[in-house]
């Protein structure tokens, strides 16, 4: 079951939601607003070398957001 990140458009609260049966949240857990938006989340992938060592981690890569260097856009709100 995937966990998705959401942002409330009313109060700015960022939260995660465990999607059971493909259904998303109905409202913000902080202010109860229905004005929520699913965010684009970063995912973690590891590339392993021949000896099993981690060569590259996608989760630690720089953000695609030009306004910050966070690994997840939910961190900066963009």
Outline:
By secondary structure, the protein is mainly beta.
List the helices and strands and how they pair.
Blueprint: E1 3-8, E2 14-18, E3 36-38, E4 46-48, E5 54-57, H1 73-76
Antiparallel strand pairs: 1-2, 1-3, 4-5
Describe the structure.
The chain is mostly beta strands and 78 residues long. The protein has a single domain, classed as Single Sheet (Rubrerythrin, domain 2), CATH 2.20.28. 5% of the residues lie in helices and 27% in strands. A three-stranded antiparallel beta sheet has the order 2-1-3, with no helix packed on it. A two-stranded antiparallel ribbon has the order 4-5. About 6% of the residues have low confidence.
Mean pLDDT: 77
Measured distance between first and last alpha carbons: 25 Å
Rg of Cα set: 16 Å
Low-pLDDT residue spans: 60-64
Question: What spatial form do the alpha-carbon principal axes imply?
Answer: elongated
Binned strand content: 25-35%
Count of domains: 1
How many helix segments?
1
CATH architecture: Single Sheet
**Largest beta sheet: strand ordering:** 2-1-3
Q: Please give the largest β-sheet.
A: 3 strands, antiparallel
Percent of residues in helices: under 10%
Please count the beta strands (DSSP E, at least 2 residues each): 5
Can you tag this structure with a few keywords?
78 residues, mainly beta, three-stranded antiparallel β-sheet, two-stranded antiparallel ribbon, 5% helix
């Amino acid at each position: 079951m995937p966990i998705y990140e959401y942002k409330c458009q009313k109060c700015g609260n960022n939260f995660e939601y465990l999607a059971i049966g493909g259904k998303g949240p109905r409202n913000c857990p902080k202010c109860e607003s229905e004005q929520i938006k699913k965010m684009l989340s970063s995912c973690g992938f590891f590339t392993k070398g021949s000896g099993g060592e981690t060569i590259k981690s996608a989760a630690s890569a720089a953000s695609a957001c030009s306004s910050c260097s966070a690994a997840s856009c939910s961190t900066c709100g963009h």
